[in-house]
């Protein structure tokens, strides 16, 4: 009986010390419902809170005024699995800032003031499964390599931003993609949109709202039309058009051919001149012998 009481007292003492330690490590303005969760939702924060436990796995920072993320943030919190930064004041992301974690599975950067997602932003976050980037009203550009390395990404949200075009290579490098949200952007139905449209037709099963839920504006009069009303023939005029990259290749090829022709002409002229001099010398020698 005595041993049971002693064991129970020891257990309660250990539990109390553990709970006390949790309370001590939890930022004063936040809640920590369990040992691996820090909830700072809606606390009016203008920067990341101090004293976040290094072994935190779920960090909730939505509905604050946080304007930036330190470049070494995920280096410090390498156990982080779930990060919610929705509805803050983020305007930009330094390349690689969010690519330092091999365990991050869920990342919400929606409803901020991001203007672009440059290449290399997420580094090699191979564990990332869901990425939310919707409702950034100033987001106009996504770099070609922005999502490079996200081999496990299944859900990508880019809805209700300011995207008028998107390089199809951004999406084709996501082998595990199952859901993509692109509705609510000011897409323009021009030749820059043609390749993306073909990709969307082939992957319409990945669109929660289907092609019916996406619209683009006609370049002539700006009229909004549903993508479901378009077909591959709608962009037939774009098939013979060259892109800027194509033009640069043609110009570079022309320069290379011209340089090669000049060099060949120089060597040919030099060879002919040498033969002519050699022939003249032989003629002089023969006349001298006579």
UniProtKB/TrEMBL annotation:
InterPro entries: Cys-rich_flank_reg_C, Leu-rich_rpt, Leu-rich_rpt_typical-subtyp, LRR_dom_sf, LRR_TM_domain-containing, LRRNT. Residues 185-239 form the LRRCT domain. Pfam families: LRR_8 (PF13855). GO terms for cellular component: plasma membrane. Residues 1-23 form the signal peptide. Keywords: Cell membrane, Disulfide bond, Ion channel, Ion transport, Leucine-rich repeat, Membrane, Repeat, Signal, Transmembrane, Transmembrane helix, Transport. The chain crosses the membrane at residues 247-269. Residues 25-58 form the LRRNT domain. The keyword Lipoprotein does not apply. GO terms for biological process: potassium ion transmembrane transport. It is found in: Cell membrane. It is a single-pass membrane protein. SUPFAM superfamilies: L domain-like. This is LRRNT domain-containing protein.
């Amino acid at each position: 009986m005595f041993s049971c009481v002693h064991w129970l007292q020891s257990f309660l003492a250990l539990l109390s010390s553990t709970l006390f330690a949790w309370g001590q490590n939890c930022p004063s303005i936040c809640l920590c419902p369990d040992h691996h969760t820090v909830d700072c939702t809606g606390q009016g924060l203008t920067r990341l809170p101090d004293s976040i436990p290094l072994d935190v796995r779920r960090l909730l920072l939505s509905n604050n005024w946080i304007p930036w993320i330190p470049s070494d943030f995920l280096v410090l919190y390498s156990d982080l699995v779930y990060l919610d930064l929705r509805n803050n004041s983020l305007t930009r992301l330094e390349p690689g800032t969010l690519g330092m974690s091999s365990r991050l599975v869920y990342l919400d950067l929606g409803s901020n003031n991001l203007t672009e997602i440059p290449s290399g932003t997420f580094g090699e976050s191979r564990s990332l499964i869901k990425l939310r980037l919707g409702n950034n009203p100033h987001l106009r550009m996504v770099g070609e390599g922005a999502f490079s390395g996200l081999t496990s990404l299944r859900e990508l949200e880019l809805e209700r931003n300011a995207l008028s075009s998107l390089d199809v290579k951004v999406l084709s490098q996501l082998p595990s993609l199952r859901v993509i949200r692109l509705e609510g952007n000011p897409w323009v139905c021009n030749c820059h949109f043609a390749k993306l449209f073909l990709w969307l037709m082939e992957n319409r099963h990945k669109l929660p709202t289907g092609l019916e839920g996406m619209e683009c504006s006609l370049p002539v009069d700006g009229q909004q039309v549903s993508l479901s009303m378009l077909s591959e023939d709608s962009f037939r005029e774009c098939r013979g058009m060259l892109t800027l990259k194509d033009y640069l290749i043609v110009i570079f090829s022309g320069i290379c051919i011209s340089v090669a022709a000049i060099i060949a002409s120089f060597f040919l002229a030099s060879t002919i001149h040498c033969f002519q001099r050699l022939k003249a010398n032989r003629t002089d020698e023969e006349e001298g012998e006579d």
